[in-house]
Hints:
Strand order of the largest sheet: 1-6-9-8-7
Amino acid sequence: MLIYFPQLHEELIAEKVEGALLFDPGVDRAQTEDVLVFRPENLPVEPEMCRRMIADFISYGESLGKMLKMLSMPTSNQKDQFGERTSAIENELNALIRDTPAEKKSDTDRVQNQVVLALVYAYEEKHLELAEIEHKLNDKWSGFGTSLGLDDEDIADQQARALGGLFSNAPVQTGSRVVLPWQKVLEGFAALLPENSALVTSDVDAVSFWRDLELDFYEKEGVLPEKATVVRDKAWKLLGLSSAPEEKPWLDREFLVALAVPETE
C-alpha cells in the first residue's frame, strides 16, 4: 500500500501517483474520484469525536497559534511529541486524551498520534482556507483599485491593510509553498499505518533533510509505475534522532519512502 507523505489533502500534492492513497486521520471525509483515501479500521478515536477535537482547537486564535507552533516544532530526543511541557495546547490535548477510553498504554500512544495527525489535517485546512481568502481579496482589491484609478503600488498597500492580521496564525510558507510539519506526520504514520505501507513524497524539506543526514538513496523498481529513487530506514533515523526513544517504540519500525519526481541536479 502506497501512502502520500506528508500531505493529507489532495490540493497540496505536487505530483500525483497512480494507486497512491491519502491518509485519513479519522475525520471520515468523502472519497474523490482522483485520489482515494485510506483510514485504518482500528483508529482509537471515532470520527465524530475527532472532528469535534479539530473544531475545538481551531475555534479561537490563541489555540490555533499554539497548535501551529507545536506542529512546526521538530521532534527531538529531549522533547515529547507535543513540544514544551508548559504549553496550553498540550494541556488541552492531554485533557481530551484523558476523556478518551484507553485500555493500555499503547492505546494512549495511538490516541495521541491520531490527534496530532488530525491537527495536521486542520493545519492544512487552514492553509487552504486562507489561500482561498487571499485569492478572493486580491481579485476584489485589484478590481476596486482599478475602478478608483489607483496604481499597482497603492493597490498592494490597500491589500496589505485589508489582510491585516488574518495570516498571523497561518501555516508557515516559503514563497507560495506551504511548509508541512512532515516530522509530526511521519511519527504518526509510524504508529498508525499497517506494516505493509510504503510512502511516496515530493516534499522538498523532508528530502533535503534526509540528504543532509547522508541517508542511503538508491534506485528501485516496482514501488512507483516507473523506476524511482527511494530511501529505506527506521522512522527514528528519518526523523534525525540519535536513537529510538524508549517511550516511543513505534519509531523503531522501518519505512520505504519513494520520491515522486526525478531529482534535478
